[in-house]
C-alpha cells in the first residue's frame, strides 16, 4: 500500500512562498525600525567621538558621573546582549540622523522620567484598610522619598555638567573623515570608533544631543528661605 505524499506548501498570494502580504509588510516595518535604530546609534556614537575629541575633560566628567548609575550599567548590558555593536559596524556607515529627529523620539520617555521625579501623592491612601495603611505608611514613605531624591540628584548632576562645552582641544588626536560629515547644525562629525569606546561614545552622544531636553526637565532650585 502506498501513501500519497502531501502536496507542497502552496504559494501565497504574492507568489513568493508561504509568506502572506501581511508578513511582508510586517517585515518591511521591522526592517525600517532596525535601520532607524542603527542610524540613531551610529549618529550618537559620532557625536560622542566629537565630544571626546573637542572637549576631553568634559567628556571624562560626564562619564565619571553616569558610570555608577544603574541606567548606564543596564544600557551597557542590553547593548552587549542585543549585539548592537555588530548592527552598527556591519556595512557602510548610515547617514547622520538629525538632532531634531533624535530629540523628538526621546521626548516622551524623558517626560515620563520627569513625571516620576515629581512629588508623589500620599501612597498610603491607595492601600485599603487602616491597619495595613498604618503598617506600610513609613516604609512606603521612605521608599518614595529615596526614589525621588535619587532621580532628582541624577537629573541635577546632569544639569550641572551639561553646560556650555569646553574650548576645542586641538591635541586630542582623533582622526576625522577625509570628507567631513556634518550634522544638521553644521558641526563636523568624525567617524565612529568600534570597540572599547563604542558604548561610551553612544552615552556621550546621547548626553550631548539630549542635553537641552534633559536640562529643560531638571528640578527647579528650592526657593531661598525668607
Over all CA atoms, what is the radius of gyration? 25 Å
Large-scale geometry:
globular
Q: Order of helices and strands, N to C?
A: HHHHHHEEH
Amount of beta strand: under 5%
β-strand number: 2
Structural class: mainly alpha
Helix content: 55-70%
Low-confidence stretches: 1-7, 9-14, 122-127, 163-180
Number of helices: 7
Biggest pleated sheet: 2 strands, antiparallel
Could you give the distance between the termini? 101 Å
The averaged pLDDT comes out at 75
What's the arrangement of strands in the largest beta sheet? 1-2
Topology overview:
Blueprint lengths: L20 H34 L1 H11 L3 H12 L2 H6 L9 H18 L13 H32 L19 E2 L5 E2 L8 H19 L10
Antiparallel strand pairs: 1-2
Helix pairs in contact: 1-2, 1-7, 2-6, 5-7, 6-7
Describe the model.
The structure is a single chain. The chain is mostly helical and 226 residues long. The protein has seven helices and two strands, in the order H-H-H-H-H-H-E-E-H. It has helices spanning 21-54, 56-66, 70-81, 84-89, 99-116, 130-161, 198-216, and strands at 181-182, 188-189. The protein has a two-stranded antiparallel ribbon.
Short summary:
By secondary structure, this protein is mostly helical. It has helices spanning 21-54, 56-66, 70-81, 84-89, 99-116, 130-161, 198-216; strands spanning 181-182, 188-189.
Amino acid at each position: 500500500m502506498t501513501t500519497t505524499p502531501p502536496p507542497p506548501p502552496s504559494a501565497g498570494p504574492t507568489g513568493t512562498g508561504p509568506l502572506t502580504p501581511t508578513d511582508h509588510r510586517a517585515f518591511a516595518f521591522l526592517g525600517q525600525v532596525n535601520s532607524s535604530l542603527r542610524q540613531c546609534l551610529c549618529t550618537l556614537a559620532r557625536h560622542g567621538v566629537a565630544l571626546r575629541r573637542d572637549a576631553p575633560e568634559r567628556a571624562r566628567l560626564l562619564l565619571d558621573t553616569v558610570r555608577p548609575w544603574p541606567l548606564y550599567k543596564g544600557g551597557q548590558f542590553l547593548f552587549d546582549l542585543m549585539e548592537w555593536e555588530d548592527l552598527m559596524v556591519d556595512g557602510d556607515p548610515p547617514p547622520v540622523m538629525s538632532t531634531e529627529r533624535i530629540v523628538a523620539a526621546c521626548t516622551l520617555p524623558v517626560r515620563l522620567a520627569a513625571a516620576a521625579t515629581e512629588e508623589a501623592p500620599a501612597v498610603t491612601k491607595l492601600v485599603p484598610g487602616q491597619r495595613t495603611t498604618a503598617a506600610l505608611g513609613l516604609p512606603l514613605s521612605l521608599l518614595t522619598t529615596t526614589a525621588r531624591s535619587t532621580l532628582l540628584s541624577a537629573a541635577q548632576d546632569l544639569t550641572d555638567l551639561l553646560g556650555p562645552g569646553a574650548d576645542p582641544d586641538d591635541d586630542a588626536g582623533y582622526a576625522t573623515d577625509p570628507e567631513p560629515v556634518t550634522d544638521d547644525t553644521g558641526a563636523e562629525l568624525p567617524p565612529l570608533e568600534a570597540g572599547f569606546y563604542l558604548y561610551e561614545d553612544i552615552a556621550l552622544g546621547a548626553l550631548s544631543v539630549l542635553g537641552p531636553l534633559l536640562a529643560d526637565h531638571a528640578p527647579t532650585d528650592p526657593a531661598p528661605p525668607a
